């Protein structure tokens, strides 16, 4: 998938196109890594590429299903080890199952967004219990910056793993 065209000017279309671009870029950067490479950290913080994928699946869940829709979802923080609080993928979780979780959460997010307007305010409860809940546009921009940051981090990890650079 290539970056959205510079002729795209509708804010909704542009935002959603960039979200899908980063979702696809994330998966493309993981393609070709062995199970061992997906489960091995190259950074002092200790996270692995597979843990990053799982984290972004739960980012989608937290911000769109639990956040915007105030849907009861369990677990909400399912990528975090209960003892350490750090991202984790269990030995019993396959790379394919984590990828499927990611794709399912992305699809759920797309369905939510398709039924809403950017100006719509998140429902009370769920993630936003008190105070003024944000608009969908704010939530989507937050999710977009999560992807941009984490895909950039994955760029570095991938280069350290096997020298692959670029898109």
UniProtKB/TrEMBL annotation:
Domain of life assignment: Bacteria
Protein name from the UniProt record: DinB family protein
């Amino acid at each position: 998938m290539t970056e959205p065209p510079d002729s795209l000017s509708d804010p909704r279309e542009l935002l959603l196109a960039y979200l899908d671009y980063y979702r696809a870029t994330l998966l493309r950067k993981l393609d070709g890594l062995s199970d061992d490479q997906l489960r091995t950290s190259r950074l002092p913080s200790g996270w692995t590429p597979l843990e990053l994928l799982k984290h972004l699946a739960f980012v989608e869940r937290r911000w769109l299903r639990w956040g915007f829709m105030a849907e009861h979802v369990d677990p909400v923080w399912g990528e975090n080890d209960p003892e350490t609080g750090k991202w984790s993928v269990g030995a019993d979780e396959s790379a394919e199952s984590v990828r499927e979780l990611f794709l399912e959460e992305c699809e759920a997010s797309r369905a939510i967004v398709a039924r809403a307007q950017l100006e719509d305010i998140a429902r009370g409860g769920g993630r936003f219990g008190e105070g003024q809940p944000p608009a969908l546009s704010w939530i989507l921009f937050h999710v977009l910056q999560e992807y941009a940051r984490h895909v950039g981090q994955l760029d570095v990890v991938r280069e350290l793993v096997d020298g692959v650079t670029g898109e």
